[in-house]
């Protein structure tokens, strides 16, 4: 089972929107040297919605090659069409990814049976460990715990990234009779520390993009049950957890990485650069966490 701080890595871009492959390489090396425990390539934070299919697969391929098996690489391969999700997941496997992360189909708003059949179809079509991803605030549908329990019985569905942002939901999931090797990962940085202290297995994180070392240390403390240390570190990170979402993700985190001289300032429409009114908030959060 993958555990710890799992960065949902951004896809660096030049101001014209072209992918900056050199910056991506540097980011991967930095994360590994700073202790990041695994990398999600082309998750939704990686702007999967605006990359072409060829770019999407190439980012996965390059991150796998750069990681050199030093940390697991999880390929973001979700789509709102099941056939497309199968195609992307197969491409992720072919690129050498260790697992795939599939967001619930967005916009379609499928019922629970539709969600079950969607993920079951992908899992049966592609023999790769699959992590489900529930983020109802972005997709318009909520993968309920009862459906997670059904899906967890499928051999290669091995975990869930839960980003509803409610501790009550994490408690409900942890109370299910799930296989012992089924991972429950927070997808909400603000509640991730408490989620792990309750028994969760890690955090698929936006904050880890800018504070990889501290996020790793916080996750390790929480997983070890050291509440005092975990909460102390998380307290320093809380301003980032909050202000990296002052505008839709990944606008603020890409601005922050540019402020840290890690990447250029590129985004793709319909995303636009962060409003200057928010810059001092994010800059102060970076300083509080020791990133600047």
Automatic annotation (TrEMBL):
<dbReference type="InterPro" id="IPR002220">
    <property type="entry name" value="DapA-like"/>
</dbReference>
<feature type="site" description="L-lysine inhibitor binding">
    <location>
        <position position="84"/>
    </location>
</feature>
<comment type="function">
    <text>Catalyzes the condensation of (S)-aspartate-beta-semialdehyde [(S)-ASA] and pyruvate to 4-hydroxy-tetrahydrodipicolinate (HTPA).</text>
</comment>
<keyword id="KW-0028">Amino-acid biosynthesis</keyword>
<dbReference type="GO" id="GO:0008840">
    <property type="term" value="F:4-hydroxy-tetrahydrodipicolinate synthase activity"/>
</dbReference>
<dbReference type="InterPro" id="IPR020625">
    <property type="entry name" value="Schiff_base-form_aldolases_AS"/>
</dbReference>
<protein>
    <recommendedName>
        <fullName>4-hydroxy-tetrahydrodipicolinate synthase</fullName>
        <ecNumber>4.3.3.7</ecNumber>
    </recommendedName>
</protein>
<dbReference type="Pfam" id="PF00701">
    <property type="entry name" value="DHDPS"/>
</dbReference>
<feature type="site" description="Part of a proton relay during catalysis">
    <location>
        <position position="44"/>
    </location>
</feature>
<dbReference type="InterPro" id="IPR013785">
    <property type="entry name" value="Aldolase_TIM"/>
</dbReference>
<keyword id="KW-0220">Diaminopimelate biosynthesis</keyword>
<comment type="subunit">
    <text>Homotetramer; dimer of dimers.</text>
</comment>
<feature type="site" description="L-lysine inhibitor binding; via carbonyl oxygen">
    <location>
        <position position="49"/>
    </location>
</feature>
<keyword id="KW-0456">Lyase</keyword>
<feature type="site" description="L-lysine inhibitor binding">
    <location>
        <position position="80"/>
    </location>
</feature>
<keyword id="KW-0457">Lysine biosynthesis</keyword>
<feature type="binding site">
    <location>
        <position position="45"/>
    </location>
    <ligand>
        <name>pyruvate</name>
    </ligand>
</feature>
<dbReference type="InterPro" id="IPR005263">
    <property type="entry name" value="DapA"/>
</dbReference>
<dbReference type="GO" id="GO:0019877">
    <property type="term" value="P:diaminopimelate biosynthetic process"/>
</dbReference>
<dbReference type="GO" id="GO:0005829">
    <property type="term" value="C:cytosol"/>
</dbReference>
<feature type="active site" description="Proton donor/acceptor">
    <location>
        <position position="133"/>
    </location>
</feature>
<feature type="active site" description="Schiff-base intermediate with substrate">
    <location>
        <position position="161"/>
    </location>
</feature>
<dbReference type="GO" id="GO:0009089">
    <property type="term" value="P:lysine biosynthetic process via diaminopimelate"/>
</dbReference>
<comment type="pathway">
    <text>Amino-acid biosynthesis; L-lysine biosynthesis via DAP pathway; (S)-tetrahydrodipicolinate from L-aspartate: step 3/4.</text>
</comment>
<keyword id="KW-0704">Schiff base</keyword>
<dbReference type="InterPro" id="IPR020624">
    <property type="entry name" value="Schiff_base-form_aldolases_CS"/>
</dbReference>
<feature type="binding site">
    <location>
        <position position="204"/>
    </location>
    <ligand>
        <name>pyruvate</name>
    </ligand>
</feature>
<feature type="site" description="L-lysine inhibitor binding">
    <location>
        <position position="106"/>
    </location>
</feature>
<feature type="site" description="Part of a proton relay during catalysis">
    <location>
        <position position="107"/>
    </location>
</feature>
<comment type="similarity">
    <text>Belongs to the DapA family.</text>
</comment>
<keyword id="KW-0963">Cytoplasm</keyword>
């Amino acid at each position: 089972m993958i555990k710890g701080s799992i960065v949902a890595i951004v896809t660096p871009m030049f101001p014209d929107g072209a992918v900056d492959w050199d910056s991506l390489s540097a980011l991967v090396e930095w994360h590994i040297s700073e202790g990041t425990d695994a990398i999600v390539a082309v998750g939704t934070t990686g702007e999967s919605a605006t990359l072409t299919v060829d770019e999407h697969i190439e980012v996965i391929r390059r991150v796998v090659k750069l990681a050199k098996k030093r940390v697991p690489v999880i390929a973001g391969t979700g789509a709102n069409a099941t056939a497309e999700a199968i195609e992307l997941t197969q491409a992720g496997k072919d690129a050498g990814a260790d697992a795939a992360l599939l967001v619930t189909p967005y916009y379609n708003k499928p019922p629970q049976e539709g969600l079950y059949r969607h993920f079951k179809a992908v899992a049966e079509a592609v023999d790769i460990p699959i992590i489900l991803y529930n983020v109802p605030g972005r997709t318009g549908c909520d993968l309920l715990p009862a459906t997670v329990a059904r899906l967890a019985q499928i051999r290669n569905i091995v975990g869930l990234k839960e980003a509803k942002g409610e501790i009550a939901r994490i408690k409900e999931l942890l109370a299910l009779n799930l296989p012992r090797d089924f991972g429950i990962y927070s997808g909400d940085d603000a509640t991730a520390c408490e989620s792990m202290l309750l028994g969760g297995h890690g955090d698929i994180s936006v904050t880890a993009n800018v504070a990889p070392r501290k996020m790793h240390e916080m996750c390790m403390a929480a997983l070890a049950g050291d509440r005092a240390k975990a909460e102390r570190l998380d307290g320093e990170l809380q301003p980032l957890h909050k202000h990296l979402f002052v505008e839709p993700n990944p606008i603020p985190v890409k601005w922050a990485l540019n402020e840290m001289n890690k990447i250029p300032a590129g985004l793709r429409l319909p995303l636009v650069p962060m409003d200057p009114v928010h810059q001092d908030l994010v800059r102060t959060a970076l300083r509080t966490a020791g990133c600047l």
